[in-house]
């Protein structure tokens, strides 16, 4: 096996990010298995054809069932809105296709578990798109923690702050509809923070949260439905059925305490996916808007030079960086997807499950659901209840 033949469902934001990753991979990681961009799938034939030509896919299909039925495809990459994940993933697994699915895995924990069961029954590989794990500075944080250089972890303080719906006239796009998106800020943004916390600190034990929907009705969307959508011409409005902001506290199995905040109403914050971790021997700080940097503090430093130091994670000593540019030449958001696809292709080459897999998708969904339950029932909810 020298190539993996990919069929991708969805061609908007994530479809573009994944296409770019498939194209960049062989150029920068030539030793990796090669993804073959076989067919892209979406419902609007004209827009799909434009995306096919622009992104460089061989072929296009307007029906995902036909895509799955093709015998020249090994892997189904699911970038469609969240309500389509389950049906496509289960059908693809039953057809013996490997799976790569965007986050959150599903609309509910029960659905996520069904997806994992289907993948395990079929014996296929399964990966979920938690791309921020693949920033070299986050990999460095993981390494420092694994090597014990931060010591025992006491705290994680994580925020994912955006402001793209702060205008009450911003339309009711699918991400603001519970039946399509599952949840709002919590599932879209908080899911990334939960995954990073699991990656770096360990499993969640119990949570308690609160949320708010600040703008309860919005104009129905016009033709554009993405993050830069515009309102409807008719002036009709509909209810927002997801959370605009969710905050929660957590206790981890290993004894650490965590606080989490996910919001789309933090004016001035375009994509502040940030965390601070404090341990017995030091601290780590990361902010995606400065994704090439990791701030670290070591209690063992001499007293006269103690302080946070800024490490630029662009040297060959840092994960993935020897494949890119000379030290100090920074990389961006899109590279996290290239590294993600590298992990997927490496898992094929080594015949193992990629990480993060649907198991991580389910674990994340457990925490999402525990937070929702704690809000509904106004109490601490332990993850083992679910
Ligand atoms: C929009 O809020 C969004 O694009 C999320 O859907 C992504 O998962 C996150 O990485 C950035 O913000």
UniProtKB/TrEMBL annotation:
InterPro entries according to UniProt: Gfo/Idh/MocA-like_OxRdtase_N (IPR000683), Gfo/Idh/MocA_oxidrdct_glycsds (IPR050463), GFO_IDH_MocA-like_dom (IPR055170), NAD(P)-bd_dom_sf (IPR036291)
Chain ranges of the Gfo/Idh/MocA-like oxidoreductase N-terminal domain: 4-130
This protein's UniProt keywords: Oxidoreductase
Presence of keyword Aminoacyl-tRNA synthetase: no
UniProt xrefs under SUPFAM superfamilies: Glyceraldehyde-3-phosphate dehydrogenase-like, C-terminal domain, NAD(P)-binding Rossmann-fold domains
Keyword DNA damage: no
Annotated GFO/IDH/MocA-like oxidoreductase domain residues: 138-284
Family annotation (Gene3D superfamilies): Dihydrodipicolinate Reductase, domain 2 (3.30.360.10), NAD(P)-binding Rossmann-like Domain (3.40.50.720)
This protein's name: Gfo/Idh/MocA family protein
């Amino acid at each position: 096996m020298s190539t993996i033949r990919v069929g991708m469902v969805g061609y908007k934001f994530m479809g573009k990010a994944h296409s770019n990753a498939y194209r960049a991979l062989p150029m920068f990681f030539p030793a990796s298995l090669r993804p073959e961009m076989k067919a892209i799938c979406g419902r609007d034939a004209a827009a799909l054809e434009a995306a096919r030509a622009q992104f460089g896919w061989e072929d296009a299909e307007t029906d995902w069932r036909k895509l799955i039925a093709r015998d020249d495809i090994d892997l189904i990459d699911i970038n469609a809105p969240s309500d389509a994940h389950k049906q496509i993933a289960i059908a693809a697994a039953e057809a013996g296709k490997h799976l790569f699915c965007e986050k959150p895995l599903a609309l509910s924990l029960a659905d996520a578990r069904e997806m994992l069961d289907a993948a395990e029954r079929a014996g296929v590989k399964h990966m979920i798109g938690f791309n921020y794990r693949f920033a070299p500075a986050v990999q460095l944080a993981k390494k420092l923690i694994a090597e014990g250089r931060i010591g025992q972890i006491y705290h994680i303080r994580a925020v994912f702050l955006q402001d793209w719906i702060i205008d009450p006239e911003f339309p009711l796009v699918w991400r603001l509809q519970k039946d399509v998106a599952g949840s709002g800020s919590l599932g879209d943004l908080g899911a990334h923070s939960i995954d990073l916390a699991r990656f770096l600190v360990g499993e969640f034990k119990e949570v308690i949260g609160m949320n708010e929907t600040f703008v309860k009705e919005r104009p129905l969307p016009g033709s554009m439905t993405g993050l830069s959508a515009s309102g409807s011409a008719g002036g009709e409005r509909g209810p927002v059925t997801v959370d605009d902001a969710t905050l929660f506290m957590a206790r981890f199995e290993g004894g650490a305490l965590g606080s989490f905040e996910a919001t789309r109403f933090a004016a001035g914050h375009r994509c502040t996916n940030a965390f601070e971790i404090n341990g017995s021997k030091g601290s780590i700080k990361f902010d995606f808007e400065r994704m090439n940097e990791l701030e670290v503090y070591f209690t063992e430093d001499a007293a006269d030079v103690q302080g946070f130091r800024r490490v630029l994670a662009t040297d060959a000593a840092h994960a993935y960086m020897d494949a890119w540019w000379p030290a100090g030449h920074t990389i961006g958001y899109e590279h996290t997807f290239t590294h993600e696809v590298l992990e997927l292709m490496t898992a094929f080459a080594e015949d193992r499950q990629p990480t993060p897999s649907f198991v991580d998708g389910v674990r994340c969904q457990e925490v999402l659901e525990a937070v929702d339950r704690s809000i509904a029932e106004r109490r601490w909810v332990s993850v083992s209840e679910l």
